[in-house]
Amino acid sequence: MTINKKNIICPICGKKGTWTSENMNRPFCSSRCKLIDLGDWATEKHCVPGDPVDPHSVDDKEE
Q1: What pairs with residue 18 in β-bridges?
Q2: Residue 28 to residue 23: CA distance in whole angstroms
């Protein structure tokens, strides 16, 4: 049986690792780096490009 291991680099700290089922934090090297990334999204340091949406202007129609 051949196990396919892909080499990855943590997007937060740059540490090298592998993309395996044993690495529960992938693509990060640790839970610390995973939480740093989550904090960046929560503080809107990271965002998905596009026009802002006013949550009060969205239709609540049932389909």
Answers
A1: 7
A2: 9
Residues 60 and 48: beta-carbon distance below 8 Å: no
CB 8 within 8 A of CB 27: yes
The pLDDT tens digits along the chain (63 residues) read 555 678 999 999 999 988 888 889 999 999 999 999 999 999 989 888 888 888 787 665 555
What tokens does 52 get?
């802002």
Q: Computed from CA positions of residues 12, 18, 19, 20, in that sequence, does the dihedral angle turn out positive or negative? A: negative
Strands (E), 1-63: 6-9, 16-19
Q: Kindly report the pTM of this predicted structure.
A: 0.66
Domains and CATH numbers, the chain: 6-42 (3.30.50.10)
